[in-house]
Structure formats: C-alpha cells, structure tokens
Batch of 3 targets.
Target 1
Amino acid sequence: MAKRAVGLNDEAWQNLFAKYDILNRVDKDGTFCITADQIKEFREPRLMVKFDHKENLPKLFKQYNLAILPVTRGNYVISHFDVYHKLEDINEKPTKISIPDYIQSLTYGGITSEALALNCAMATGLMQDFMEDEKVSATVSGRMGSGTFSFLINDVISKAAHHVQVENSQIEIDAGYEGVNSLALMEAKMDLSNDFMVRQLYYPFRTWSQRMKKPVRPIFLTYSNGMYQLHEYAFTDPDNYNSLKLVKARNYQLDDAAISVKDIESVMEMVSIVMEPDDVPFPQADTFARVINLCELLNEKPLTKADITVTYDFTSRQTDYYSNAAIYLGLIEKFTNEDGTLAFTLTQRGENLINASVKQRQLELCACMLEHKVFNDTLRLYLKQGRRPEISQIVDIMKSSSLKLNTEKTYHRRAQTVRPWIDWVVNLTKN
C-alpha cells in the first residue's frame, strides 16, 4: 500500500533534520536557512513548504514549535516563528446579496472555485459594499515577485524578535480590487478553518505598499455554502509581521429565496425515517458547516483521507469524524484507489445537492438530516418548546432511537453533535 502524503512529508523532513542537524542549528544560531535544492533531495519542495494552517505542519515542526518562511525564490528560513493567526468569529447577521438578473454564467449552485467566488463577490456588489467604494475594479492577481523588504517576527520560544530579509520571493494574490481610495488584496479560501498563515497577507501587503500611494488593505475571504466571510486586517507596524490587527469583519449571504419555519416543517413532515446504518458511526462532527464544506471540496474531485487532512484545517481524527458524518447523511462514499489508498467521492445525491441553488441545497441538507429519527425528534422538540433542547433531553431521544452506543458518556458526547446540527437548521430561518 502506498504511504500517505502526510507520512511522506513527515519522513522527508525527518531525513532533512537528520542530515543538516536542523534542530541544533536553530538552537545555536536562532534560524536555519535551507534551499529548494536541499529539500528536493528527499521530496518536491512545493509539497514540503506550504502549510496554510497550523494543523498541517509536519510532526517535527509541531513538536519543536517550528515554522518555515520563504525568503527568495529558492531559499527558506526555519525557526520558532509565530506565523499563524486565529480567525476571529463573526457573530453579526449576514448581509443579503444577489446575483444580478442579467448574469447567466454565474449561478448560486455553480460557485465551485475560489476564482468563481471572487467573480461573484464583484458581480453582487459585495466588494463595493465592503470597501465602501462605488468605483471598484479588479486589477492585480496571480504570481509575481515580492521585491525586497525586511521585517521583524516573534519567536514563540524566546519571545524575542527575528529579523528576516526577503528578496524577490514568489507571492500569489488571489485578487486585487482597486477603488478610488485604496487597494484591497484578497486571500480567498473555499475551506473553513480556524487559522491562517499570515504570510499570505503580509508578503503581498509589503510588496504593494512599496508600489502604491493609496492604502493597501489585506483581506482574508472564505466562501462556503452561499456564505462569504471577510476579515480585513491592518499591520499597525508595517515592519512587524505580528502587528496584525482586525479592522472589520462581515458576513454576506447569497440569497435566492428566504427559508421559513414552514419550509423546514414541510421537510420534517415529508421525509421518511430511515434505519440507522450499521456500517458508519453516529455523527461526532460538531460543526455542520464543515460537513457541507467537505462535500464542496469533493465536488472538485475525489480526495484521499491524506488529501483532506493536508488540504483542510483537520487532524487525521477529525477527517474521520467529518467524512463519516457525510457518509451517514448519504452525501459521500468511500472507495479504494488502484494503489490501495482509501478515498472519498460524492454520491449522486451529494452531487445533486452541492450543485443546487442555495435554498434547494439547504432544504435538501435538512432532509438528509431529518430522515434520521434522532434529528427529526430533536427538531420537533425544539419547535414545540421554542428553545434548544437540553443535552439530557437529546440523550433521552437518542436512547429511544435504537442507536448502538455503548456508554452514557458516549450518548452525551454524541448529543453534543446533535444540538449544533439542529441549531444550524433553525438558524436557516433567521438569516
């Protein structure tokens, strides 16, 4: 059986650490510089240096609080760098946006890539609204050289600051939008995550701040299931990588039709209750939006477990939890590749759902969930009493639903998944 991609990265870095005595060099000198050619001795560099989320780091980097940054087109520096930033929650009600009637080439169900999500953001007026500028044009994008700049970055061990010099490193900008008064540089993601690599905002910010007289605004955008989340940041000290500060954050919801409580009740009454599956565990994946997002990623192509773990802000265990949850709902299925690796793909139901309009998708997701007695009965209780059920109430429903759970602790743990899933259904009527 082929080794998992995660394991290949770990093994290659173990070999590099051993050959170049990287840990001792970092302890002695504070940093260690490594070239793409050195990395290539063991594995392709592009697969070895891109870690968008802290969870994606190789085992040795996690164990010793290390990170890696590019400094030229073929050189990298390793140290105890503080490189990630936790995404702030956005609790405000989303602003509704719509695709103009005259546009036929963009559809609510057809936004399957970062490029299409960005095009849709422009077409709906989202960018004009967020930038507070009526005249906004798409300008710079793609890969380019960074030019030359230097910066300070915190050391997570010593709490001191390292000085890093960058000379024509490669950067990539997903989209640049210029208005009358500013240039917004976008880092766009189709996967929901807890954190991001600040370099994705900082390097383009430093590059274009040297070329513009207008302010440069770094913006982190995520799109999933019809919802945009935008976080705008400022670097209060442009020469300090860790001076990132949130300026504003907003949600935008693509709206093709509102969903009412009556719509949800109709789905609840129309579905037929199915038998609980014997070959997949009861869900243990608390964030339902990430179950949907996993299906969106699989809409692009089938993925192995390792692909999902590397691409997403997931541990290997979380990949199991969320893939099993989507299988439980009948949205994805497992298969075995020719090389023997386990992979996942959308079922026909999952494919139809992901490519439907926003309203149709949400109601079909409700149907997938409410076909299961536990979720159906819990939602009925929620609507009857006008508030979210207590965990003890959900446990009682679970015990009456022929679930094959072994312990009281397991019932309570699984109830912690049922409640936020039902919250997701109810919140559809509030957006």
Target 2
Amino acid sequence: MKPREDSHHSLRRRLLWLILAAIAAASLVQGASAYRTAVRQADAMFDYHLEELARSVHAGVIVAPDPTRSYDLLVQVWGPDGVQQFRSSGIELPPQAVLGFSDAQVNGVRYRLYSLQTPQHTIRIAQNLDARRAQGRAMAIQAVLPIALLAPILMLAVGWLINRSLAPVERMRRQVAHRAADDLSPLPDEGMPLEVLPLVRELNLLFARVGDAFAQQQTFVDDAAHELRSPLTALKLQAQALKRAQDPAEREAAIASLNEGIERAIQLVAQLLALAREQGREGGRRAAEAPRRVDLQDVARQAAADVLPHATERRIDVGLVTDEPVQVSGDADALRILLRNLLDNAVKYSPAGGRVDISLGHTKARPWLVVEDSGPGIAAEQRERVFDRFYRVAGGDVAGSGLGLAIVKTIAERYGATVELGRSERLGGLRVELTFPASPPGEAEARP
C-alpha cells in the first residue's frame, strides 16, 4: 500500500520553520521589551531635563525656548508676592502650583509640569506631553530598529546553516538514488553528522547482508541448475527407453526405473526448496522471531513416523532409545525437517535389516540429540566436507542429492546448535550429535 503524502514531513522544513518561529518570537519579545524600556528611559530623561532646567532658572539662567518646536519648554517665574516675573512665549499656565511633577491640561493640550519653590520665587516648567511622548516613541523606535534589522539576517543565516548541515544527508540520498540495482558497496560516511552516522553504518551492514544473500542465492541457483540437469536428463532418457520398450517385462522395468527417477527428482526438489527456505530464514533478522519452547521428544517421534514407510520397506528398526522430555528453543517444523533429514540419511545408508537409534538428554543443562545408525559411516577426512551443498561421500553406492546434511547444518546454526559427526560405538555406523544452547536450570542428566 502506498503511504499517504500527508504521513510524511520534511525534516529540513520542520526544523527551519521551528527555528524561524523561535527567532521571530524572541525578536518580538526582545523588541517589545526594548521599546517599553526606551519609552520609560526617554520619559525619565525628559523629567530629569525639566528638573535641571528649573534649577538653572533658579540659578539665574533663563532659557528662551524655540517657539517653532512644539516639544520645547514653557517657563514661568513668580515672585514671593505672587507677581509673575517672567513668562516665555506661549500659553498662560494656571497660577496654582503643585510642587514637583504633575500633569495639567490647558486649552485641550496636555502638559507635563515641574514646579520648584524657593524663598525668592516660584518656578514652573511645562512641556507638551503629546510632543514629548512622540519624541520618546521616536527614540524607542530607533532602539528597536537594530533588532528588526537583525532578525531577518539571523533567519537567513539559520536557513543557510540548516541547509549546509543537512547537505551530507542530501548527498547520501543522491548517491543512493543514482545507484545501480546491483551496487551494494558501502556508503561513504566521511563528514556525516553523528546523528546520521549510525543510520549510514546500519545501511552499510544491510548492504553487506543483502550482498551475501545475493551471492548465496546466485551460488545456490547455479548449483541447483547443475544438480537438476542430471536427474532431468536421466528422466528424459528413461522416458525414451519406455517409449522404445516392446516387451511387457521390459516396459515394466522401464516404468519402474522412470518412477524411481521421478521419486529422486521429487526428493531433490523438495530438499532444494527446504534448503532455500531455511537459508532465507537464516538471512533474515533472528530478533524478529519470538523464541518458543519445543518438545524435542515429540519432534523425534514425528520425524521417525515420516521415515517409517521407507524404513519398513528395508526392514530397518528406527526407535527412540530414551524416553524423557527435552525442550529446546526453536521452531518445531524446522527441527522436524532437521531430524527427518538425519533419519532419512541413516535409513538410506544402513543395510537392509539394520538399525537406527535416536537418543535425547541433557549435559550441563545443554540439551542434546544423537542419531546413530548401523551403516558404513563417514571417513574422518570427509566429515567436514559432507556439510557442503551437493557434496556426496566418495565411494558410496547410494544415490543422493548431497543436501541433507547441508539442511541440517543450516537449521542447527539458526538455533545456535552444534553438529558433530563421529563413529557409533554401539551400532558401528555414523553418529550425529546435536548440542543445543543451555536450557532452563533443573534439566540435567548424563547421556548414555
């Protein structure tokens, strides 16, 4: 199913918008704070200016304000008898004086007043409050202007830094996008951020696993094609022989030979499919498989039942010589395939009227399983090679595909078990021992 477009998002776009929003919010807060602070400071400065001007007048310095500037000052001085001694051009201020700072409205115009009383006279300084506040706002805007100019520059710098920081990721994306389907070489990790480096390394490990799987698959296909060619050619020849047969006895023999060839081909294909399936599971992630406890005794009985028809036909006794519950972690079907291949080989190579025994037990809390037969066994120098696919024991007179022990080894390795080949002291043939990882405490018993 194709994922919905709205289920994905751009990390670059999200990161950029979040940081830009944070810069914008911080700039607004900082600008508002700077504006309010500048207005308060301008107001305090103007008040201080009124106070200093009143003291200057008291000292005998009379200031003549500029009548063309609306925010200039109005100065009025009264003597101790209440007679006005000086008044600058402009409106007449009310004679009542409130010492210190105060606000008043004259002819619809608001003024900021400062009054100073001394034994010689009373001084009052007035300033147009609206003009003063306008001047204060202008000064505050000048204080905020650098912040307003810096915020866009900072946003551009952040956007450039984000794009540059994510450039290695984009470069890796282009490298992967332009790769050939069979190019599984590792991705370069030079210059990768530490947050992206684990992803690159995991991708390289994945490429290595996929490459190994491809190589294994190619080898398997080549070997399978080679091994299938011989039985299919034999079937063709047997079919031709059946077509040429005229005598009923000869025809019956040709039909029997053809059926035998078909059975061998079916067995070979079944083993090839089993091996491919187990190798596919082996190449997957084992962590995804939930461990399950499997009763190995039940698996042994089921596998023995699978080979019983062939064993009965050759009068071979297949039996379980120990009767105790043994549990291992694994998959019951896979372990049944493993044991069935061991038993099938034991039955196939044992002489008619022979014997195949299955033993189970624990040693140092590690479960084990042993299959012994009364066949010719395997020479010590060939015991390592028999686990290779399509390898057949030299000098054997029994037709086989060379896949049985390869399947056994693949399944055993998947569940952490070891496989050892030796000679059976009791039956004289081959002894195959599987040792599984340690089972829970309390399950330990010496093997026979």
Target 3
Amino acid sequence: MQGAVLKSFTYENKGGNGAGVIILNRYLPTNEKQKIAEKIGLSETAFVTQINDDNFDVSFFTPLCEVNLCGHATIAAFYYLGVIGRIKGLNETKKVYQNTKVGKLEIEITFNDANENNVEYVLMQQGSPKIYDKLEGIDKIKLADSLNINKNDIGLYNYEMSPTIVSTGLKDILIPVKSRKILNNINPNLNMIKEISLEKNVVGYHVYAIDENKLFTRNFAPAVGIDEECATGTSNGALGCLLFENGIVSNQMEIVQGESMNERSLIFVKVNNINNTIDVRVGGKSLIKSNIYL
C-alpha cells in the first residue's frame, strides 16, 4: 500500500481541504480501513483499488464512519493517481471511472504539457441530483437557532429560496443566508446541528451566500465527525444544481469556501442538462502535502 495526504480545491496554491489517499494492493476489510482513517484523522480518506487502466473501486471513510461519496477526497485520489503514474497523460484530458456506493462515476483528469503525469486539475461526475424537502416554519427557526442567527437572515435577496435538502451523493441541508458577512460570522451550535442532521437524515448543513455575483459557502457536518470543512465537492455540486434549476446561476460557477477558516478554497461546478438528465461535475486543483507510510 502507498498513500499521501493532499489538499484539494486549492486556491492559488493555498487553502484547500485535506484528504488522505491510500492505494491498495490487497483486499482490506472495512474495519481496517476505518482504523486507518481514524489514525490519519482527516475529514475523509479515500481507499482506491485499481481494476484496470480505466476503472477504480473507491471507498470513503471519515474518522467515525464510511460515507457513500466524497468530492474533495475524489479530487485528491485521482490527482495522486495521475502524479504517481497509475493514470498516464500528456497535454490531454483522460477519462476514467470510479466505482462508488452511489454508482459508477466519470472522472476527467487534465494533464498539462510540462512533463508526463503533471496533473493540472481533476473534474468528477456526481450522482444524479435529487431535490427533497424545503424546510419552513419551525424547521427554519431551528436551523437559525443552530447557526446562532436570526431566522430573517435566512434567504437570498431578489430570490425566493428556502433551506432545501439536496443530494448528488450525500444529502445536505442547503441554507441560504442574506450576506457574506452573516455567513462568515456564523458561530454554530454543533450539538444542535448534529441533532437536526440526524433527525432529517442528512450529513450536515451547507450554508451559502451570494456576494457581488460570487458564491461563498460554509459546511458543517458534526453528525459524521466533521465540525467544519473548508472545501466540499458533493455539497457544492448539490448547491450548483439547486441554483441552476432555480435560474439563479449559469451552468458553470466558481465557489469560494473556507474563507472564515483562513483556508480559502476554490471549487468549480458545471451543470448540464443532457437529454432531460441533469449532469453535475465538480472540480479543482490539488497539492501533495506529505506521504503516508503504513
């Protein structure tokens, strides 16, 4: 086995969200993966088994449990596979596939022309988007209380948007707030967020604001052991789908996350309607921070 710690969705070679990546050369049971993820201690660790040149089995673990999909760990995993030469390319975009608990998803790895296996960025297909319930009334009040904000702070100027449960692989409550200042000043009650997340059967909250036509987000998932993440692929993919479906954004957008954590990260989201099917892709850049020795 070989592996590394990477930062995904970096912004000008800074920020980004840490993920562990382990390339497996033998079968590893779930309990052993969980122990390794707990030891690494990052929000998610991806375990990758190469099936052939184009197909990879990938599973994802937080320090507490397995999750069906993870955007930033996917970006990290396939960036790493390109850098170490498991996926080869030169001045081209290669398409490969990851087999996950939400299905078989396409990955695009763009290599630049500097030298072989020099990866520019990775773009991942997400699961088919599903938009569930809007949360109003007492639910909206509870959401505001758990974020320590006024319920009137929830919403968007010029658009009728309510907190909504959405999934492109993992279910989150997407919560609009009326300004970037409100977003960055949130002081969450993590115990309340955990209780509400378990009650609503979601991973956590993805809170967003629009400021000067730019998207800014924060993500809280204490129910799976993550107080706050500075970059999340699946949540931002779900957000991109929701805003695109409501006519608020175009089909391509850049999202800044982690600003309040001093870990500014940049997530690229692309949404297309292909034969009446919504295709959501999330991408970004990565950096290798250190190797993992097991």
